[in-house]
Amino acid sequence: MKVAAHRLAVDTPHGWDARIYRRIQSEAGEQSFPIMHAANFALPSIRGDFGSGAVDRMRRDDVLVVLLEFDEPSAQTALFANRGVPRPRADEFHPTQLQRVLPGQSGGQWFFNTGDRAFCLYVVLGSHHRRARLLPHVHNLLDRLTIR
User: Fold this and answer.
1) What is the pTM of this model?
2) Are the CB atoms for 65 and 135 separated by under 8 Å?
3) Distance CA 139, CA 89 (A)
4) Average pLDDT per run of 10 along the chain, which is 148 residues long?
5) Contact criterion met (CB below 8 Å) for 46 and 90
6) What are phi and psi of 146, to 5 degrees?
């Protein structure tokens, strides 16, 4: 299934669910940026930016990939200095890297830029012990991601 919006596109592997959207701007005029959620399980209709609502449903073989865009000036900062979509390694995942620690799960977070666009890649794995086995699913999805 190909999902595309806001100059992001992903052609998901079979059995994956993905959404690309922007939150509705607040009345205070805060700017919103694109968010992509992709998972090898059915995503719930209501999710937080970092996947709350989805991570609660994850089983040990589940993977959640979140891509959040930040404002354009952020692309020039030290935090987003790494260029191009990261290629996470199994040793970069840890249970304490989660936005909210859930038993057995593991996570990782990477900041990067693609030209004038700044992003955070956040990945949650259903099992820390199975991270080496689950990581190829993450790489397969990231290989199918296009940022224009």
Assistant:
1) 0.95
2) no
3) 10
4) 97 98 78 96 96 97 98 97 98 95 97 97 98 98 98
5) no
6) -125, 130
